Each structure stands twice: as structure tokens, then as C-alpha cells.
TrEMBL record:
GO terms for biological process: chemotaxis; signal transduction. One of its GO terms (cellular component) is membrane. The lineage of its organism: Bacteria, Pseudomonadati, Pseudomonadota, Gammaproteobacteria, Chromatiales. Keywords: Transducer. This is Methyl-accepting transducer domain-containing protein. SUPFAM superfamilies: Methyl-accepting chemotaxis protein (MCP) signaling domain.
Length: 545
């Protein structure tokens, strides 16, 4: 028979007898009744109690002794239920504290993941910009290479003019000696120019290879950043789901706490009423004992009028106790349902967090790859700036050579004018050399202007690379923090699941003990009815006497 049916049956039984029951508690009352001394006899001079009345009193006394024993048993069961409820309340409080801690940990972790996502977005944008600027830089370097090729061609033409001037000077004899010296100097300068442009091409090749490496690292960084972003989004989604699960667990924990509070209040009420019943029943037993000792009709009359009055209300009070424990039984069912819900939600969340730990480890590997790529880009960008400075230095050397060449050509022009008609050919060559020197100067100026722009771009790239590295380090630190929090949250959710499981395990025991209390109320109530009936018979017997 279920507790609800048993309680209803109990209440129905005593409603038919116009009885209703009740109780409340704190300390057990274990009381035993003294044995009546039936050997005592009134003095010969005193009126004696009718033997039938004395017999009825002894019967009632025996029934009261049984009633006290039954009430003590009920009180012990009620206190057992109260103790179990207190234990469950403690477990419920732990579950609530665990859920609150998990909620705070998740919120902190979600803030970290959001910051990481922002950093990843900015990092991805920065890497994309670096790749775009590297592409533009590569195109600009191709322009420098073309200008350098032009300077190489000019150097060859200058060398050829100097060679022709040397031949012509040899033919001119004594007049051409000065021009021959100038021509030799021009040839040396032309060779230096050619060597310098060769150096520029070498550096440009290094830069081209460096840019290819940087672009490759940029591609790797982009792929890694995308993987980190997707992984972090996955972590954030799971944390969002777990946060929702924790809210559900907190809701169920609140329901459990409320139901347990109702149970404890009901237990307190039931125990207090049972103890009150024990106390009143004990007083009635003591009144019977005194009346038996006195063995006087007046004492019997007083006992029937006042001393046994509390016994008539027992049935009513026991119905109230039954109703209190029926409500306790309903609350215990709520505890069971809420605990099972919390257990299911916590178990599912704990499993999700176990999987999330694997995801977080994968993200950590991706962020390590991203960090390595960005670190490589950052260090290589420093090499880029250094290479551009080397080209600029070589270009300035070529510009100096062009100035020297122009000066030699100017001297040759002056010398040609001095010797008159014999120097006309040399004057023509000198003008051509001056023209080539001017073109070389213009080319080096163009290279220098381009390099200045490239240096500015390289500085911007270096700054972006440094900032990107900082962002990568921030993301890595954040991801590690999230990974650590995930482990902590997983552990906490496991504890929450264990707490819920323990409540689930104890809930049937609460319901069962409550059922035992309700079942034990029925014979106790029957005993109360028997006592009332015996009192009615005693009254009738006393009235007849």
C-alpha cells in the first residue's frame, strides 16, 4: 500500500470516529509507566472502590502503557526521518554550493573565450594585412630590380665608351694621354657600378626568398588562426550549453532545498505533537496510578472528570500527525524527482565537459602552431628591414660613383676644349659619359625613393608582426586558462553529479521511512480508540454504581 493511500485510509478511519490527529518535535521522549500496586487496599474505615471499576482502571492503565510504547516507537521513527532529512539537506547544500562555484567558473571562462575570439579576429586580420603588404612589397622589389638592370646596362655602356675613348686616345698620341687616364678611371667606375648592381640583385634575390617564406608562414598562420577560432567557438558553445545546464541544476537544487525544508518543518511538527501526546498520556497514567493508590470513589470521580480528559483528544491529534507526514511524503517525492532531474543534467554536462577537454587540447596545439608562425614572421620581418638597408647602402654607393663619373666627364670636356679640334671626339664621348652618369644618378635616386617607402612599409610590418605576436601570446595564455577552467568545471560538474546521485540514492529511504511512520500511526490510533472506548465503559460502570 502506498503512503498516500495509507494516509487516506488512516484519515478516513478516524473521520468516521470524529477524530483528527497532529504532532511537532525536537527531542525524543522515552517514557515507561510504573506498574500498578494492585495489592494495596483501602483502610477499613474508608469507602472502597467498586472492584469492577478497579478492574477497568487496570485495563486502561495497561492500554496506556502500550500506547506510550507505540508513541515512543513512532517518535523514534520520526526522529530517524528527521535525521535523514538533515543529512540530505547537508548534501543538498553542498550541491547548491558546487553549482554556484561552477557557474562562476564558467562565466569567467566564457569571458576569457570571448576575449580570445576578439584577439583571434584581430590577429587573423593582421596576418591578412601582412600578406597583402608583403605582396605589394614583392612588386615594389621587382621595380627595384628593373631599375638595377637599367643601371647595369648604363654601366656597360659607360665601360664601352671608356674603352672606345682609350682606343681613340692611343691613336691621338701625346694629346690623348690625359684622355686615356680619364677613360681608365671611367672604366674602373663602370665596373664598380656593375659590381654594385650585382650586389643589389643578390640582395633582391634574398628578399624575394624571404618574402616567399613570410607568405608561406602567413598562410600557415591564417589556417592555424581559423582552426583556433573554430575550436574556441566550439569551446564557447559547449560552455554556453554547460552554463544553461548549471542553471537547470541550480533550479532543481532550489526545488530540492525547498522540499527538504518542508520535510524538516513537517518532521518538527510531527515530532513535537508526538512528544506532546507522550507527555499527556504519561500524565494520564500517573493519574490512574495515584487514584489506584488512593482507592477512593472521590478519586475515581475526579479521574473520570479531569484526569483522563487528555486521552479523549488523542485520536484527533494523531490525525493531525498523519496529515503532517502525508505532506512530508509528498515533499519526499518532489526531492526524488528534482534530484533525478539534476543528476541527469549534471551527468550530461559532465560528459560534454570531458569531450570539451579534448577540444581544448586540440586548440592548444593549433595556437602553438599559430604562435610559431607569427613568431617566425616577426623575426623574419626584422631581416627584411635589414636587407632593405643593405640595398639602400649599395644604391648610395652607386650614386657616389655616378658623381665621380660625372666629374671625370666634366674634366674630360674641359680638356677637350683646351686642345681645340683635336679634342672634339673626346668632348663627344665626355658628354655621353656625363649623360650616362646622370641617368645612373636618376636611377639610384629612384631606387632610394622606392627603398624609403619600402622601409616605412617594413617598419609597419615589423610593428604589426610584434603586435600579432603579442596577440598570439594572449590567445595562447587565454586558451590555456580556458583549458584549465574546463578541467576545473569538469571536476566540479562531476561533484555536482555525485551530490545529485547521493540525493537520488537517499530519496527512496526518506519516502520509505515516512511510509513506516504513517503505517505505525494506524495501530497507535487504534490503541487510542480502544482507550477512549474503555473510558466510556468505565464511565458507564461508575455511573451505575
Amino acid at each position: 500500500m502506498s503512503m498516500t493511500k495509507a494516509s487516506a485510509r488512516f484519515t478516513s478511519l478516524f473521520n468516521r470516529k470524529n477524530a483528527s490527529l497532529g504532532a511537532q518535535s525536537s527531542e525524543p521522549v522515552e517514557k515507561t509507566l510504573p506498574q500498578l500496586d494492585t495489592a494495596q487496599r483501602p483502610t477499613p474505615t474508608a469507602p472502597q472502590v467498586d472492584p469492577a471499576v478497579a478492574t477497568s482502571l487496570n485495563e486502561i492503565h495497561a492500554k496506556i502503557a502500550q500506547q506510550v510504547a507505540g508513541l515512543n516507537t513512532l517518535t523514534a521513527l520520526a526522529r530517524q526521518l528527521a535525521d535523514s532529512t538533515d543529512t540530505t539537506i547537508t548534501e543538498s547544500s553542498r550541491a547548491s554550493d558546487t553549482s554556484e562555484a561552477v557557474s562562476q567558473e564558467i562565466e569567467q571562462s566564457r569571458e576569457t573565450t570571448r576575449r580570445s575570439l576578439q584577439e583571434i579576429e584581430q590577429l587573423s586580420t593582421a596576418v591578412t594585412e601582412i600578406e597583402a603588404q608583403l605582396g605589394a612589397l614583392s612588386s615594389a622589389l621587382q621595380g627595384v630590380a628593373e631599375v638595377a638592370n637599367g643601371i647595369t646596362t648604363i654601366a656597360r655602356q659607360t665601360n664601352l665608351l671608356a674603352l672606345n675613348a682609350t682606343i681613340e686616345a692611343t691613336r691621338a698620341g701625346e694629346i690623348g694621354k690625359a684622355f686615356a687616364v680619364v677613360a681608365e678611371h671611367v672604366k674602373v667606375l663602370a665596373k664598380q657600378t656593375g659590381d654594385a648592381t650585382s650586389d643589389i640583385h643578390t640582395i633582391l634575390n634574398e628578399l624575394t626568398q624571404l618574402i616567399e617564406v613570410l607568405l608561406g608562414q602567413g598562410g600557415e598562420a591564417t589556417v592555424a588562426a581559423q582552426a583556433v577560432r573554430e575550436g574556441t567557438l566550439g569551446i564557447d558553445e559547449v560552455l554556453d550549453a554547460v552554463a544553461s545546464a548549471v542553471q537547470d541544476v541550480e533550479t532543481e537544487a532550489a526545488r530540492i532545498a525547498s522540499a527538504l525544508s518542508d520535510m524538516r518543518n513537517g518532521c518538527n511538527t510531527g515530532i513535537a505533537r508526538l512528544e506532546h501526546l507522550v507527555e499527556n498520556t504519561q500524565k494520564s497514567a500517573e493519574s490512574i496510578e495515584r487514584t489506584t493508590r488512593d482507592n477512593s470513589p472521590a478519586g475515581i470521580e475526579h479521574l473520570l472528570r479531569e484526569g483522563l480528559a487528555p486521552l479523549h483528544g488523542q485520536a484527533n491529534q494523531l490525525v493531525q500527525v498523519n496529515e503532517a507526514y502525508a505532506e512530508v511524503a509528498e515533499s519526499s517525492k518532489l526531492v526524488d524527482v528534482a534530484a533525478r532531474n539534476a543528476q541527469h543534467v549534471a551527468s550530461t554536462a559532465a560528459n560534454d565537459l570531458d569531450k570539451l577537454s579534448t577540444t581544448a587540447n586540440g586548440v592548444l596545439k593549433d595556437i602553438d602552431t599559430l604562435h610559431h608562425s607569427v613568431d617566425t614572421i616577426n623575426s623574419r620581418l626584422l631581416n627584411l628591414n635589414e636587407a632593405l638597408n643593405r640595398i639602400s647602402k649599395v644604391a648610395r654607393g652607386i650614386a657616389d660613383i655616378a658623381k665621380q663619373t660625372n666629374l671625370l666627364a666634366l674634366n674630360a670636356t674641359i680638356e677637350a676644349a683646351r686642345v681645340g679640334n683635336a679634342g672634339r671626339g673626346f668632348a663627344t664621348v665626355a658628354e655621353e659619359v656625363k649623360d650616362l652618369a646622370g641617368r645612373t644618378a636618376e636611377a639610384t635616386a629612384s631606387i632610394d625613393s622606392t627603398l624609403e617607402q619600402l622601409r616605412q612599409q617594413a617598419e609597419q610590418l615589423t610593428a604589426q608582426g610584434s603586435l600579432s605576436l603579442q596577440r598570439a601570446e594572449t590567445v595562447r595564455a587565454g586558451t590555456r586558462e580556458v583549458s584549465n577552467v574546463v578541467d576545473m568545471v569538469a571536476s566540479s560538474m562531476s561533484k555536482a553529479n555525485q551530490n545529485a546521485t547521493r540525493i537520488v540514492d537517499v530519496a527512496p529511504e526518506l519516502e520509505q521511512t515516512c511510509g513506516h511512520v504513517i503505517q505505525a500511526l494506524e495501530p497507535t490510533a487504534n490503541s487510542a480508540t480502544d482507550i477512549v472506548q474503555a473510558l466510556d465503559r468505565l464511565n458507564k460502570t461508575a455511573l451505575r454504581r
